[in-house]
Design goal:
CATH superfamily: NADH-ubiquinone/plastoquinone oxidoreductase chain 6, subunit NuoJ
Structural class: mainly alpha
Shape: globular
Number of strands: 0
CATH topology: Four Helix Bundle (Hemerythrin (Met), subunit A)
Order of helices and strands: HHHHHH
Helix content: over 70%
Radius of gyration: 19 Å
CATH class: Mainly Alpha
Distance between the termini: 55 Å
C-alpha cells in the first residue's frame, strides 16, 4: 500500500511540475506549483523527514507561493496573466533539460543504493535548531536575506506608480 502511495505522490509531483512549466496561464501555473510543493512535502514524509516536510509546507507553500500569487494578482503591469509565447530558444532549452534528465536517470540507476533497515530518527527539533544556530548559521542567514529580497520584490511589484 505504501508503494502505491509513493508512486501516486511521485506522479503528482512530476505531472504538476510539468504543468507549472507548460501552462499558458500564470494562475494555473501557481496552483500547479502548490500541488508540486505539497507532493514534495509528502515525499519528505516518506523519507521520515517530518520536520523538513513541515518546513517545506510552511516556507514554500505558506510564504513563497503566497508571494508569487500576490505578485501576480496585485501587479498593475500585467493586463492578462497569460504568458503564452513562442521563442526559438525553446528547442535549445528543451534539449538542455532533456540532457540533464538523462544524466539524472543515469546517476539514479548507476548508484549503489544502501537498502537496509530503517535508519535511526534521533534528529529532533531541538537538535535541528541547535545545528541551525551553530554549524549552519551562515546558510540560515543567507536564506533569510533571500526571503527578505523576495518579500521586497513582491512589494515592489504590487506598488502602483
Amino acid at each position: 500500500m505504501a508503494e502505491y502511495l509513493f508512486l501516486f505522490m511521485a506522479a503528482l509531483v512530476i505531472a504538476s511540475a510539468f504543468w507549472v512549466v507548460f501552462s499558458p496561464n500564470l494562475i494555473h501555473s501557481a496552483v500547479s506549483l502548490l500541488f508540486t510543493l505539497f507532493g514534495t512535502a509528502g515525499l519528505y514524509v516518506f523519507l521520515y523527514a517530518d520536520f523538513i516536510a513541515a518546513t517545506q509546507i510552511v516556507i514554500y507553500v505558506g510564504g513563497i507561493l503566497v508571494l508569487i500569487i500576490f505578485g501576480v494578482m496585485l501587479t498593475s503591469k500585467i493586463d492578462s496573466p497569460s504568458i503564452a509565447s513562442s521563442s526559438a530558444n525553446q528547442f535549445i532549452g528543451g534539449m538542455g533539460a532533456f540532457a540533464i534528465f538523462v544524466m539524472q536517470v543515469a546517476v539514479i540507476f548507476n548508484t549503489p543504493w544502501n537498502i537496509g533497515s530503517e535508519q535511526s530518527r534521533d534528529a529532533t527539533v531541538g537538535s535541528i535548531g541547535k545545528l541551525l544556530l551553530t554549524d549552519y548559521l551562515l546558510p540560515f542567514e543567507i536564506i533569510s536575506i533571500l526571503l527578505l529580497a523576495a518579500l521586497m520584490g513582491a512589494a515592489l511589484l504590487s506598488r502602483r506608480n
